[in-house]
Amino acid sequence: MARLLAIAKLNPDLTPHSLRHTHTSLLAEAGVVLEQIMDRLSHSDHLITKNVYLYVTKEMKKEASQKFSELMRSFH
User: Fold this and answer.
1) pLDDT tens figures, 11-54
2) How many domains does the chain have?
3) Of 46, 59, 55, which Cα lies nearest the Cα of 23?
4) DSSP conformation letters of 5-64
């Protein structure tokens, strides 16, 4: 893996497990529902998926802010 990371000029500290975490958050960012993410990770406990693997990305924060702004505009 170290050789591939060097060739791709990626962070040499990346591990297969860190890529799994990133993959999980990107699935959530893409709107994939929790049950499908759990299936993809072979998880049976949603708490493991939610508490260990899912991170709120910058794009998710931006989307939440935009949705809230739209909601507030709808009250006018």
Assistant:
1) 999 999 998 998 998 999 899 999 999 999 999 999 999 888 88
2) 1
3) 55
4) HHHTT--TT--HHHHHHHHHHHHHHTT--HHHHHHHHT-S-HHHIIIII----HHHHHHH
Amino acid present at 10 = L
Taken as a whole, the chain contains a residue count of: 76
Residue 28 near residue 37, CB atoms below 8 Å: yes
Q: How far is CA 40 from the centre of its chain?
A: 13
Take residue 5 and report the two structure tokens written for it. 């990371």
Read off the pTM. Answer: 0.69
Burial of residue 6 (number of CB atoms within 10 Å: 0-12, 13-18, 19+): exposed
* Cβ–Cβ < 8 Å for 27, 41: no
What is the residue range of 25's domain? 2-74
